[in-house]
User: Fold this.
Amino acid sequence: MLPQSLFARTALLIASTLAVFSVIAWQAIVWTTLLPAAQLATTVLTQRANEAIVARRTGQPLPESTRFEATAPLIMEPRYAGAAVRTYVETVRAKLQANLDAPEARIHRYTGPPEIWVRTREVPDAWLVLSWRIAGPRAPLAALCVLAVAALLVLSAAALSARRLTAPLADLAAAAARLAEGEHLKIASASGPSEVRSLAAAFQSMAERMAELDEQRELMLAGISHDLRTPLARLRVAVELLGAGDAALTEEMVANIEEMDRMIAQFLHYARANYRETPTKGSLDEVVRQTLAIYSTDQRVRLELRAPENRLFAADSVRHALLNLVQNAFEYGRPPVTVRTSSSAGEIAIEVHDCGSGLSAAEWSEAVRPFHRLRAQPGGTHTGLGLAMVDRLVHVGGGSLDAKRTVDGFAVWVRLPADLSV
Assistant:
């Protein structure tokens, strides 16, 4: 039931504190202003009422603002001009009734000079009417208005202060999400309270350190790739020179060398997958045809292409993702493998469908982890980076990678943003 954001909780705390303070302030006004003013007015009215009773008994003129009525008022006015007036007038009525030992006292009018009708024991056959002009409650009412204005100003200042406090925290939360996606960023650490500035500076230092570690990792893997490929190239040349003796053995050794070279390239590409690709203009259907040209004569691959228009999209990411998904469909699924393309406003999509049993949701979440090999796959020629690389390329490019078992097999969808304004 409580608000979840820091700003809302801070505003609620301040508003609750002001509400409690307003109640306490109102009670203080009642005790220090209204009750003393009511006591003073009651003393004056009591004296005037006693003088009126004596005057009626002796036949002398009645005091000012007093009279006697034979019958009770037919219409009573239960309306009050405000909380202060009601508290004041009701206090006067109750005290006056107690002072005169009157069995009944009624308030007849609140607009204009209030009237209190009192039935006294000394004059049981008539009502004594006392009227007086309220002066005291105006001061408490003004004090309440000042208090309300002050509360409004304090709430506004507190809301502004809370917003200035929570805005840098919201920026840090957004920056953390962007950093998790592999984006290199710079955090402003010159605004907000000192604690928030210290947090922003520490976060910036961490982001720079992570960027430095990424650069060192890429440099290290690039060096490893270069150092390993050089002896592999010499080994390939040597094997080809020895090829006349045993052609089958030579072909197998060359294939193994090429597999090692492919694995090294895949490691390097995975390490660089955090870098965003610059979109290029082209047709998704044409990119798919070129990428799968090696399967052009393979009846197990079917193309259903429905995105011929030119768009701006990450073509290299599409190529890498498509090759990996088709190879996985052949190795872990069951042909035929159907590749479908489609497009919508601001997005392109590729579906790779095979007729195998596929993976459950839990197995798929494990399969996209680095160095995780799909189940029931013998052999050791795979690095376990194929789907992980596809997942990273797609998400860094702002897209999504989804998979689901279907009625007739297993389907994987790649969706990437594509600009229409080309």
In short: The CA atoms of residues 367 and 374 lie 6 Å apart. Confidence is low (pLDDT under 50) at residues 376-381. Residues 280-417 form a domain with the Heat Shock Protein 90 fold (CATH 3.30.565.10). The chain has three domains: 6-142, 181-272, 280-417.
